[in-house]
Amino acid sequence: MENIDVISPENASGPPSPPPPPPPVKSNSGSKKSTVQKCDRFASKATRDAWDRMFDEAHGADVLIHTDDSGLIYAHSNVIGMASDVIRGMIKQDKRNSRRKSISILGVPHDAVRVFVRFLYSSCYEKQDMEDFAMHLLVLSHVYVVPQLKRVCESHFENTLLNKENVIDVFQLALLCDAPRLGLLCHRMILKSFEEVSNSQGWIAMKQSHPSLHKELLRSVSYELNSLKQRSRKQKEIQTYTQLYDAMEAFVHICRDGCREIGPTKIETPHVSCGFQACNGLEMLLKHLAVCKLRSIPGGCSRCKRMWQLLELHSRICVDSEQCKVPLCSSFKERMKKQNRKDEKRWKLLVKNVLSTKRIGGSPFFLQAIDVTM
């Protein structure tokens, strides 16, 4: 005691020294990763461990939870009642004047109920427990209104647990448990892998127990297949119209500037690209048209017929036929006046679709899509 200096406020020359800093925390990066998944990032590990210990030891528990197979779980009414309003109402309905209240959670395995009650305490769970009881926990979270647990279950199904074998069961649970996002993910998987899903045990069971849902899924699959066919057909049409527009631009390029072996100016190195992908095919058709002996015979040569159609299409979208360098442009303009109404309507529809593929930055040699009247 003699070695302790007592410093009075009067004799103190300054404020007392602060306490030493805590020792540095050792890194656990090399240790094995824990299987416990934390859901509440704002609570410290010590706090979560304390809640888990309170649940495991059940000291002072005043609620007895009955489960299937005569299972019993001890809990604290204040804790589980604060976590779930439904459970709090169940506890209040027990009118017995015993030291412990009694409630029942039936219809799911005993271990699933234990994982559920533990989550009410600490918002923690074992990874393996989630993999084993995710469906049961989703149902419990919905029945007892625990939205945090429902979000956890939905996240696990979305990221890891959903597969082609359980997608039908999860889809039905999502509909019953008001989980629209999870239901949408299941529906997408069913449409994407319908052949495999339709052979699963879940599909067979659903067909027998819920025939109306089975018919609705078949209807949605049929609708999706038809939509895919329509989109594919539309894409092919757009691709065809784009190729026709490119061919029209290549026509003007060949006849005005020349390219490779055709036109006013020829390229000495034929392998050099001119920037128009359709040039090569058009040059071959033009060469064939110049030497073909069947071109003037009706229905004689399919390649010549195709060339005539391309020339007529060009004449219909050409702005100025008198100044145009493409062969027979003005002749086809005159021929259009003699066509019947049905053929004219079909050609105008084709012209409008071809011009619509280049709504921005169209060629100055062609009409605009808005200039075409049906």
Automatic annotation (TrEMBL):
Matches recorded under InterPro entries: BT1/2/3/4/5, BTB/POZ_dom, SKP1/BTB/POZ_sf, TAZ_dom_sf, Znf_TAZ
Top-rank taxon: Eukaryota
Biased composition (Pro residues): 15-25
Domain BTB: 61-129
One GO molecular-function entry: calmodulin binding
Pathway assignment: Protein modification; protein ubiquitination
Keywords: Cytoplasm, Metal-binding, Ubl conjugation pathway, Zinc, Zinc-finger
Pfam families per the UniProt record, alphabetical: BTB, zf-TAZ
Keyword Zinc: yes
Any one biological process term the GO annotation gives: regulation of DNA-templated transcription
SUPFAM superfamilies for the chain: POZ domain, TAZ domain
Protein's cellular compartments: Cytoplasm
CDD domains for the chain: BACK, BTB_POZ_BT
GO cellular component, one term: cytoplasm
Residue segments, region Disordered: 1-38
Role of this protein: May act as a substrate-specific adapter of an E3 ubiquitin-protein ligase complex (CUL3-RBX1-BTB) which mediates the ubiquitination and subsequent proteasomal degradation of target proteins.
UniProt name for this protein: BTB/POZ and TAZ domain-containing protein 5-like
Gene: LOC130508334
